Amino acid sequence: RELPKVQQFNTFSIATATQYAMAKFLVEKANAGRELAPFFQAKRDRLRAALAGTAFRLPPAQGTYFQLMDYSALSDENDLTFVDRLLNEAGVATIPLSPFYKEPPALRVVRLCIAKRDDTLDAAAERLRQFANHLAQGGRR
Question: Are strands 95-96 and 109-113 parallel, antiparallel or unpaired?
């Protein structure tokens, strides 16, 4: 039960030595990441467009390779239960927000990673769309 928590933070963390190396690189090559913002914005826009019209709400995001997704119109479940359902019933891995809090608030929001190939984003969006439609037809859970 504790191993997924460790994996969650290790996957998106970076060793101190690597942080210093990246900081030096960014000073020396200040324009190196110029293409990243439009690249990830296009991916966010692609996902947001694919999920438009569903009960999922996707607040605007900038400067990140994550997109938050509010599922409160579809379910009252906590985020840990909902991410498990998304994985097992829709085949889409998402990230709960509650592990980032010492005392999590009652959020009905999960995080999606958009640092994926377009075909992967498209497939995930279609699965999320189908899952949202299923929940909307079957009532809230």
Answer: antiparallel
Tell me the whole-structure pTM to 2 decimals: 0.79
Helix or strand run (H / E) with residue 112 = strand 109-113
70 in helix, strand or coil?
A: strand
Q: Is 8 exposed, middle or buried (0-12, 13-18, 19+ CB in 10 A)?
A: middle
Give the whole-angstrom CA distance, residue 114 versus residue 65.
5
77: alpha, beta or left, given left = phi > 0 and alpha = psi -120 to 50? Answer: beta
User: Which has more pLDDT, 67 or 137?
Assistant: 67
Q: Dihedral, CA atoms, 73, 79, 84, 87, nearest 10 degrees? A: 60
